[in-house]
Design a protein that fits this description.
alpha+beta; 4-stranded antiparallel beta sheet; 10% strand; globular
Length: 221
């Protein structure tokens, strides 16, 4: 008995319409960024931070549009939805969407951050606070949706369920950076690199994870 890994290139090859919509999306993001910079009159020292959220948003949109999960039964659908919701909540907590209240003023407020980072909706209550930035809100939703699709495919591919575990790396690297800082000391070279490049590394891992979960290799005889 032999097993082969099947890769459907048509699922990942962009068509003409996809490229046109992608060009329109990127141009819109550039225009929004330029308008924000002119209106806010801010000085940008690290331009890469303007790019990170758009990478998350664009990759997430691509994954959501191209993923069409088909549940084999109601049980599979409910199971997949339950795991996806639980996974999104775990991402939200580990990624900072939900956190302890701290010392911020109570209530709702809107932060006009650069496009992708904002506009960020924030809420501080007595027991928790929310920080809803567009890039990680959409990104985590896309990961949860892909995990939902992965669960539905798991009946036909044992490896698919294992791939879902890779998703949490994209949200936990900032946590690792904080642990490295506390253990190694804020002035250490390791802690400096971890904090300096945490967004870059988490973005790379996010893109790779979305790619793996979108591909979802299948096994056949």
């Amino acid at each position: 008995m032999t097993r082969t890994i099947g890769l459907d290139l048509d699922r990942i090859r962009p068509g003409r319409d996809t490229l046109l919509w992608a060009g329109l999306l990127v141009n819109t993001e550039i225009i929004l960024t330029v308008v924000y910079l002119l209106a806010a009159d801010v000085t940008i020292e690290e331009w890469r931070f303007l790019v990170y959220p758009f990478v998350w948003l664009n990759v997430a949109i691509w994954a959501l549009v191209r993923t069409d999960p088909t549940p084999r039964s109601s049980r599979d659908r409910y199971l997949g939805a339950g795991i996806a919701v639980g996974y999104f909540l775990a991402l939200a907590y580990a990624g900072g969407l939900v956190a302890p209240p701290g010392h911020a003023a109570m209530g709702w407020r809107l932060a006009w951050l650069p496009p992708g980072w904002g506009p960020a909706l924030m809420f501080t209550g007595e027991s928790f606070k929310l920080t809803l930035m567009p890039y990680n809100l959409v990104g985590y939703a896309a990961l949860a949706y892909l995990v939902y699709a992965t669960v539905l495919d798991a009946a036909g591919s044992a490896i698919s369920g294992a791939l879902g575990l890779l998703s949490c790396v994209s949200c936990t690297w900032p946590v690792f950076a904080g642990l490295l800082t506390s253990v190694a000391g804020a002035g250490s070279a390791i802690a400096t690199v971890a904090n300096e490049w945490s967004y870059a590394i988490s973005t790379v891992v996010f893109v790779l994870t979305v790619g793996l979960l979108s591909w979802r290799p299948t096994f056949g005889r």
